[in-house]
Amino acid sequence: MRPPRALHPGFSLGHPLGFPNRPHLQIKVLRLLLNYLVTIDTPGTLIERDISIEADNGLSYEQD
Amino acid sequence: MGLRQKKDRALATLYARYPSVFHLWSRRFSSVTHTGSPWSRLGKDISQCRLALITTGGVHLKTQVPFDMNDRAGDPSFREIPAASALSDLTITHNYYDHTDADKDINIVLPIDRVEVLRDKGEIGSVNFRHFSFMGHIKPPHRDMLVQETAPRVAENLIADGVDVAILTPA
Question: How far apart are the first and last CA of chain B?
């Protein structure tokens, strides 16, 4: 498959937006998607970014 | 639940617990291949855009007909999900991935509440009045119906609704 733009956030199958009842993390993923929507200028670009590790490292995914 | 469906659920659990097994399977899985990508530049600021969600996570209203789990080739149909749906109105019918966590919070496959937050904060212009849901395990001969009929129908609906941005969340 070659979607126009894609983000692989590093979560396991069945968790495209991350973990349950982690609204701020889920919103962060959406904001990243919207950001890449603007910045990606090559069709078929796939961004691989392990947000699960970033979240585990205590980055501010639980606050706006 | 029949023996085959139990086997499908067991495989889904295995893939969730051991992602490397899933990646090995997915590399060998023959899916539709494309040489190019459809492309359209965003023509306006995101804060002015109307957004809709599309998931392949098998989400549907409890009042809707569930996706067909008895057909080994899958179910290429789709369900319209009203944006105003409460999470308690929704359920998941999909035996090919482990949706234990999504059952606790469907927002992880269909972030229906989270896009409302983005709208309320003015980060997007509006949320479409409906979202769309497929179940993402569709093989021949039903794949042709997905590619030629049901997926294009969803795209036509999105255009008719004036949607600027569609986020697809696979599962």
Answer: 21
